[in-house]
Please model this.
Amino acid sequence: MNRRGGGASDRPEPALEARAVRRRYGAVRALDGVDLTVGAGEAVALVGESGSGKTTLLRCFNRMVEPDEGAVFVRGAPVDAGPAVELRRTLGYVPQEGGLMPHWSVLRNAALAPTLRAEADADARARSALDAVGLPADEYGARWPNQLSGGQRQRVAIARALAGESDIVLLDEPFGALDAITRADLQDLFASLRAERGFAVLLVTHDLHEAFLLADRVAVMRAGVIERTAPPSRLRAEPGTPYVAELLRRARVAP
Amino acid sequence: MRRRVPAALLTAAAALPGLAPADLAARVAAAPTPGHAAGPAASAQQVDSALRVVVASKPFGESYLLMEIFAQALEARGMAVDRRPGLGATEIAFRALREDDIDVYPEYTGTGLVAILGEEPAADPGAVFARVEAAFRDRWGVRWLPPLGFQNTYAVAVRRETADRHGLRTLSDLARASPELRAGFSPDFIGRSDGLEGLRPAYGFAFREIRPLLQAVKYRALAEGAVDVIDGYSTDGQVARYDLVVLRDDRAFFPAYEAAPLIGRRLAETRPDAVAALTALAGRLDEETMRRLNRRVEVDGEDLAAVAADALGGLDRGTDGPAGIGGDTGEQAAAGRDAADGRADVEARGAGRRVRAGLLAYLWARRDTLARQTGRHLLLVLVSLLAAIAVAVPLGLGLERLRRGAEGVIRGVGLLQTIPSIALLAFMIPLLGIGVVPALVALFLYALYPIARNTYTGVRDASPEAVSAGRALGMTPGQLLTRIRLPLAAPVIMAGVRTAAVISVGTATLAAFIGAGGLGDPIVAGLALSDTRMILSGAIPAAVLAFLVDLALGGVERAVRPRGVAGPVA
Model:
């Protein structure tokens, strides 16, 4: 099975798949029987209120969270088929607030994924990823994260995910902490990078506009279950449930 | 067996410059007189340590003086002597004697009866001596030689003005006036059944306030009016200095405290020559003489060795000095360092003679001794600190991995901090003897907590976002530790090391109480002899050392701070 570079066969395996996944934290049911599929090259946004379980679900795919019940697959293989570390090295990941190593240069940060995989051209990949996010390595590579703006740091985080050249990128509230204009710039940048490279995306966001802008399908989570999944236009037209309708109304997303 | 290790280490240590245990002797004996050549000479003869008699004292003036008298009496008969002045307190000195780490020190029969045997105080000197003599020999093989001829029992003193105002002449008078008076007593005195604990019911004292005060500050506190009543000793030279009135013990409460040489089993069994020399001192010193001698040492600041030489009746020895006898062979064997020390000490002697010569001149005159003491001090701090780092950093890292129970373990290590250092040092004598080794162990134990605590919290709190991102991108726990957590925690860990080091520089002054040397020597000796210049000659270099250590480790802390990470938050 092709683990990187996207599925080009006639019946590609889904990039990510969760089946009847449950996860409790004490008395709280963070995930209460969730099914979700992200097709190869597809972008799915997980939206919902705080505590609805969207970040927990995302973290099941890179085994930062282990489900109590259910099955989780990446590229058609169960996530626990091999070591967690190996799995994580094949997944792009962009956390909120970047999560850059404060004591590493921008270039070293961007080169993390290929470096962990001991790839000889790690530096070249990091440089090209930095170029792609608009931070040319010659100018920015030697800087420290604390010398960058918040938006620039988040660009480095995206470059770090791209440099791994993974066919799947997980994003956990990636633009949530940025001001509106910077956020819009980064959303545009991300949309064009995805159009160019065609990787599959699982995006966790509380911003419905962002979800509608970046995703092929939007999954609305509520209290540990997925209430409804649909492409943006269809979701807008037919919210399907009173909760989703109410959510759209509150987020001022026009029908 | 258990004594072998420290003894071997001491011998090894003596081979290194600046480490000779005889440094102590060099200072005390040396300080300014003819008798001093014995100091450097002593260090040159470590190989013959089996033949040397180790003479010690407790940390107060009279004990120093009696030690010096013992030492010179032995040297006058051609014996080689090592001096170990100022051992912590009764507990430490007596344990050291029991373990044969020292051979003789001056002790008081009443202290033996009450503080060591734990029996009721008694007033009849003959009966007390007979009791301790028999009990110590049977239990420990430790021998009391015949008393020196004077009693140094507790005394209670007030300012003359207080005595006049309240009409105080006896302790019964004092009991009457006690509700109006504030007392400052040694912690020792407060708790002992032959001290305040017994005195209070015997006379009915009810002081307005009782403050624990150390011997060294008590007289000053009384003179300055901070307290009205203090305890003292009947032969105390300080009484005259501050024009105090000693109140008569009209109910004969205070027990017999005859001074006598207390000797260890090894000396008693193998050195009849030394026993004979010390026995010959029996009855030679009366209370009048001791008050006069103590006053010369503690009030007039005269040199210990000179006063001791006078006490031995050899005023004419002033020119070649009794210590010279023991020093002859040593002088020949002495290395260049010793010769240089000799010159420095001669200069120091000169400075000592000018009664109030400037502090700087005094420090300059003692520069070689001070350099050695500083070197020893630094060595104590560095060795214990390196050992503490080697243990506490892995401990902190391990605890961070465990998390559960980590706080408990670290608090347990923190409890070590609450053990009083003197108690810790006393506990270790049976295991490690006295000298450098137990001092290193104590300093090591005290340094563990700040380093372990900072390692644990530093690693635990190192940029959680970066650690989480690293984990999610496939870094192994080992990579997270060595590439993210440790580099980010390094400045915090270094801050812990820095704290431990600065505290260590201070704590290491206490090493003097168990004969480990360092800058505590002049502090302890100066406190005992009421010699401010001597105290400062230890305290100032210690402060400078603490400052420099802090500065240097602050530099290291900045150096290990990863680039790209902002400076100290606090």
User: Anything to note?
Assistant: The interface with chain B takes residues 59, 62, 64, 85-89, 93, 95, 97-105, 112-113, 116, 144-147, 157, 160, 164 of chain A (CB under 8 Å). The CA atoms of residues 98 and 154 of chain A lie 5 Å apart. The two ends of chain A are 41 Å apart (CA to CA). Chain A has two domains: 10-91+168-255, 93-165.
